[in-house]
Amino acid sequence: MSAISIPKAKTALFNYSPYWAECFGTASFLPMSRAEMDTLGWDSCDVIIVTGDAYVDHPSFGMAIIGRLLEAQGFRVGIIAQPDWTDKKSFEVLGKPNLFYGVAAGNMDSMINRYTADRKARSDDAYTAGGKAGSRPDRSSLVYSQRCKEAFPEVPVVLGGIEASLRRIAHYDYWQDKIRRSILLDATADILLYGNAERAIVEVAHRLARGEEIDTITDIRGTAFIRRDTPADWMEIDSTRIDRPGQIDKIINPYVNTQELDACEIEKRNNPLSGVKLNDQGEQVVNILPHPKLDKSKTVIRLPSFEKVRSDAVLYAHASRVLHLETNPGNARPLVQRHEDIDVWLNAPPIPLSTEEMDYVFGLPFARIPHPAYNGAKIPAYDMIRFSVNIMRGCFGGCTFCSITEHEGRIIQNRSKESILREVEEIRDKVPGFTGVISDLGGPTANMYRLACKTREIEAACRKPSCVYPGICENLNTDHSELTQLYRETRALPGVKKVLVASGLRYDLAIKDPEYVRELVTHHVGGYLKIAPEHTEEATLSKMMKPGIGSYNTFKEMFERFTKEAGKEQYLIPYFIAAHPGTRDEDMLNLALWLKTNGFRADQVQAFYPSPMATATAMYYSGKNPLRKVSYKSDGVETPKTPEQRKLHKSFLRYHDPLNWPLLREALKKMGRSDMIGSGEHQLIPKDQPTGSASSYNAPRRKNSGTAHAKRTKAGNILTQHTGLPPRDDGSSRKGAGKAKPSKRR
Q1: What was the pLDDT predicted at 150?
Q2: Same domain, 489 and 591
Q3: Measuring CA to CA, which residue among 329, 378, 379, 383 is closest to residue 352?
Q4: Among residues 13, 717, 712, which one has the least CA distance to residue 357?
Q5: For position 38, which CATH number holds?
Q6: Is residue 206 located within the same domain as residue 248?
Q7: Which domain holds residue 492?
Q8: Do 177 and 263 belong to one domain?
Q9: Are 439 and 539 within one domain?
Q10: N or C: the chain end with fewer CB closer than 10 Å?
C-alpha cells in the first residue's frame, strides 16, 4: 500500500490575496454600531457576525477569532452581539452586509447555557455583561439565522459555532426529548461550517467576494449544505451495509475493532470495494468485487434518513457510530442524510491547522478586553480567562460524554513555543490588572501539547475513537518534555511571578512522564489541581471511555510524593459524573463508599447532561452502545433517566449531606443494602436523622481517620461541556461533573 497521510490544505490561511478593503487597516475593536463604522470610514460591512455572547476581543471568544481573521484577509467585519431576537431591526443596525451574515450561538450551546441538567432555567449567564441570564434565546443560532433572513432575504447566512456544529445532522434533543432534524434546515441557513472553521470561513469569504453563488460552494471540507440528490459521478455506500445494525452478514465491516490492526489492514477494511475480504484474523480470503481501487474523493456514505432515525432508536445509535468513526481527516468520507425530499450533505472534516497557521490565528491584533460599549461591566467568562493562554487545540481522549473531539478533532494542533511566549508577554504588557500570575497555560486538556501518533501514516489510517482507551496506544508519543520546557521558559519571563495550570489534566498520560508530573506539582499548582476520574466502577467507566481508578491512584501517589518533596500543601480535586449511561444504583453506592473511604465530600454535583451528538447521548436515547457494533440483539445500556433516579445518583455523590439521608436510606433498603445504614466505619449513612438544622450538621467521621478538609476553593465555579476549562474559542465547555473537596491525608 502506498504511504498515506492527512492531506494538506491547498492554501495556508496566511497565503490568500487580501480583499481590497485591507486599505482600511486594523480596527481597535470590530464595530458594533454605525457610529463606529463612520469613525473607521466604512460605508458598509462585508461580513456581519451575529453572536449570542457579549463581544470580547480576545482569542478565547469565537466572534473575535473569526472577526479578526476575516479582517486580516482584508474584509470589513462588524459584530452584532446578543441582539433582540424578537425584532429584525436589531439585525439591521449595521446595514446590509455585502457578502454574508456569520451566525453563531456563542462559545456554548445555548440550551446548555440556559438550562441545567435537570432542565431548569439558569439564573446567570457567564458570557453576558453583568452575568445576567435572558440575553439569548433557546437555540440561538437557529433564531438568529431566521432573523437575518427576515432582515435581508437575499444575503447568504453562514452558520457556525459549537451549537450548529453538534446539530449538523439529525440529533437527539434532550430538552424536547425527541429527534430533531439538522439545524441547517430549521435555521434556513445557506451553509453550515462545523468544527474550528478558520479554513472554511476564509475560503467561503474569498469565493463569495469573487462572485460565486453560495449554493455552488459544495467542495469545502468541514461544511454541510443541502442537495436534492447525489451527483451522478459520486458513488454511494449505504451505512447499514458496511455496519449492519441487523444480523451480521458477510460484507466487510470497516468499523471492527481497529486496536489490533496495523495501518495497512485498517485501510483495507475501510475500503468495501477494494476487492479484498478479510476474515476475523485479518487474513485475505476471497475477492468480492472487481474494482481495484475506490476513489475516496467521489465516495459518500448514506446514513439512515431523519425519518428512520426518528422512529428507530437502533438506527439512531448506528448513525451516531458511523459519524464518529468518520471523523479522522485522513480517511473520513462525506456523509449524507435524507430529510424528507432533500439531502443534508456533510463534507469530510477540516484539515487541522499547522503550527504556523495556529501562530497566525493567535497572533492577530486582539485588544484582549471587552468592547467599550459594556462600560466596564463584568463579564464572568472573560474575568476567568483574561490571564490564560491557549497553547493547543483538539483532544484524542474520546470521552463519550464530551463533544471536544467531534468539534475540534482528535489531532492536536499546537502553537509554537515562541508564539505562546509572545502572548504571555502581551498579557503582561497590555491587559489591565495583571499581577504577574498566568491563570492557565493549557487547552482542552492541560497535557496533550505536542503529543501525536508516532507515524503520520498510522494517524491518517486509524479509526480508533480514542488514543488512550482502553489503554494508551503503543503508537502514541507520550513524551511531555516539550511541555515541561515550555513551563520553564514561561515562568522565567520577566514580570511573570507564577504560571498556573488550570485546564483538566489527563493523569493517565501524565504518569507516563514522571519528570513532567514533578515539574507540574512543584511549580504550577495553585494549591489545588483538578483531575477527572469521573467514576470508580468499570461498568460505568467503559461507557465513558475513561481509564480505571488505578491510574488515578498512581497519579495521586506521585502528586503527594512530589508535593511533599516541594514542601508544599496542595490538594487534588477529583470530578465525578452522576447518572451517566451504564451506571446502576449499585455503581453509585460503590462510588459513594470510595469517596467516604478516601475522605472526599463532593462540593458541586451535577448529573450527566446529554449534549447533542455525544456518543453517551446516543446511549442515553437509544439504550444501545455505539462503541461496539449496534444491532437489535446487542446488549442494552442501563441508563438512569427518571428524575427520581437521577436525583438518587446525585444524592450518592453527596452522601454526607443529611438532607439526602432519607432518600438514601429508602434506596439502600430497596437495594437490599441495609447493611450500609449505620455509623460503622464501613457504613455510608447513619441510621438516625439529626435534630435541629440538618443543613449545618456535619456527618461524623471515622475516628483517627487522619483527614482534614481544606478551605473551599473558588476555582471551577464556572464549569465549562467537558474540558474543565475556562471558555475558549472552540465553544466547548464542561458541565456534568461533581467536584469533590480535597482532603489532606497525613
Answers
A1: 98
A2: yes
A3: 329
A4: 13
A5: 3.40.50.2300
A6: no
A7: 387-617+637-656+699-745
A8: no
A9: yes
A10: C
CATH code, domain with 552: 3.80.30.20
Q: Which cell numbers hold the place of 685?
A: 449513612
Q: Helix, strand, or coil here: 271?
A: coil
pLDDT, tens digit, 9 for 90 and up, residues 549-565: 999 999 999 999 999 99
More confident residue, 288 or 474: 474
Element housing 356 (H / E): helix 355-362
Same domain, 207 and 258: no
Q: Which of 130-137's residues contact partners 24+ apart within 8 Å by CB, and which partners?
A: 130/377, 130/378, 131/378, 131/379, 131/380, 135/52, 135/54, 135/82, 136/52, 136/82, 136/85, 136/105, 136/106, 136/110, 137/85, 137/110
pLDDT tens digits, one per residue of 638-687: 999 999 999 999 999 999 999 999 999 999 999 999 999 999 999 999 99
The Cα 579–Cα 620 span in angstroms is: 10
Nearest-angstrom CA–CA distance, 534 and 537: 10
Between strands 235-238 and 299-303, the pairing is: parallel
Q: Is the pLDDT of residue 734 over 60?
A: no
Three-state DSSP class for residue 311: helix
Quickly count: other Cβ atoms within 10 Å of residue 713's Cβ. 17
Q: Which of 213, 246, 268 is where one domain is finished? A: 213
Q: Is the pLDDT of residue 267 over 50?
A: no
Q: Are 738 and 606 in contact (CB under 8 A)?
A: yes
User: Cα torsion for 385, 390, 395, 401, to the nearest 10°?
Assistant: 10
Task: Assess if residue 6 is contained within a domain.
Answer: no
- DSSP per-residue codes, 608-638: ----TT-HHHHHHHHSS-TTS---TTSPP--
Domain presence at residue 668:
no
Three-state secondary-structure class, residue 464: coil
Would you tell me how many other CB atoms lie within 10 Å of the CB of residue 20? 11
Mean pLDDT in the chain? Answer: 88
- Cα–Cα distance measured from residue 457 to residue 263, given in angstroms and rounded to the nearest whole number: 7
* Claim to verify: residue 127 and residue 241 sit in the same structural domain: no
d(CA 427, CA 435) in angstroms, rounded, equals 10
Q: Are 393 and 358 in contact (CB under 8 A)?
A: yes
Rounded to whole angstroms, the Cα distance separating 194 from 158 reads 11
Q: In total, how many domains does the chain have?
A: 3
Confidence of residue 741 (pLDDT cuts 50, 70, 90): low
Helical ranges in 567-602 per DSSP H: 585-597
The backbone torsions φ and ψ at residue 103, rounded to the nearest 5 degrees and listed phi first, read -115, 130
Residue 155 has a CB neighbour count (10 Å cut-off) of 17
Do 259 and 134 share a structural domain? no
Domain assignment of residue 152, yes or no: yes
274 occurs within a structural domain: yes
The set of cell numbers assigned to 629 is: 457494533
User: Would you state the cell numbers that stand for residue 486, as one nine-digit string?
Assistant: 515550555
- Where is the domain boundary, 284, 313, 340? 340
One DSSP character per residue, 143-198 reads HHHHHHHHH-TTS-EEE-HHHHHTTSSSEEETTTTEEE--HHHHTT-SEEE-SS-H
Please say if the pLDDT value at position 253 is more than 80. no
What angle is formed at CA 50 by the lines to CA 48 and CA 52, rounded to 5 degrees? 160
The model's pTM is 0.88
3-class secondary-structure state, position 231: coil
Alpha-helix residue ranges (DSSP H) falling in 216-291 = 239-242, 263-269
Same domain? 503 vs 598: yes
pLDDT of residue 248: 36
